[in-house]
Design a protein that fits this description.
Order of helices and strands: HHEEEHHHHH
Structural class: mainly alpha
Strand content: 5-15%
Helix content: 55-70%
Shape: elongated
Distance between the termini: 25 Å
Number of domains: 1
Largest sheet: 3 strands, antiparallel
Number of helices: 7
Length: 207
């Protein structure tokens, strides 16, 4: 039975993805560190009035803030409770094993440096996803009183909601594929050529 180049590539990618996930998961806390730093720097740059830094516990990234959490109605609280925003790095970092699986399945020339470049290139996008996960908690989940402290208008809250959807559903899967397409253009060209020849063969057979 003949297996097309594309089918063989997809099978190898799936097998490599399972292997890469098994390696990536235990290393999650290490891989989360640079993303946490980038996310924190981005948050403090954009929101210097209330973003104060990041604290990491395992793969959980917590942004410390100066935003005050109002007590529930009818409850008297002594002191001030400050909002801490927590998100799970693994929810947004799985693009790395996906990119690694694609590269391992195609094994392009210069594999080592392409893997390194791809790993670094993914980090800013992962940081953006983490940032929007934090912002969603401020703008939507924490309530209007907290959102008002952060000066988030209704329009800002809607944009943050859209950004969170994009950062959680699109960026983790789309960016690794785009990076692979850039880093391994030779195989992409071969796959396109094979698809064209197969289409031409089918059209010739139909005639």
């Amino acid at each position: 039975m003949n297996i097309s180049l594309l089918a063989g590539f997809l099978i190898k990618t799936i097998l490599w993805l399972l292997a890469c996930l098994a390696v990536w998961y235990p290393l999650g806390s290490i891989l989360a560190m640079p993303v946490g730093w980038l996310s924190s720097a981005l948050a403090q740059l954009l929101f210097p009035g209330w973003a104060e830094g990041v604290h990491q516990t395992g793969t959980t990234l917590a942004l410390l803030t100066s935003l005050q959490v109002p007590p529930p109605p009818g409850v008297t609280v002594t002191g001030t409770a400050l909002l801490t925003l927590e998100t799970e790095f693994l929810s947004y970092g799985y693009g790395l094993p996906l990119l690694a699986a694609l590269l391992l399945a195609s094994w392009p020339r210069g594999m080592a440096w392409k893997m390194a470049v791809g790993t670094v290139a993914l980090m800013p996008f992962q940081a953006v996803s983490v940032l929007f996960a934090w912002l969603k908690q401020v703008a939507i989940q924490a309530g209007p009183a907290v959102a008002a402290q952060a000066d988030f208008s209704e329009t800002s809250r809607n944009l943050i909601g859209l950004g969170y959807q994009f950062g959680s559903l699109v960026l983790p899967t789309l960016v690794p594929v785009v990076l692979w397409l850039i880093l391994d253009r030779k195989l992409v060209s071969t796959l396109v050529l094979e698809a064209y020849l197969e289409k031409a063969k089918l059209e010739e057979g139909g005639n």
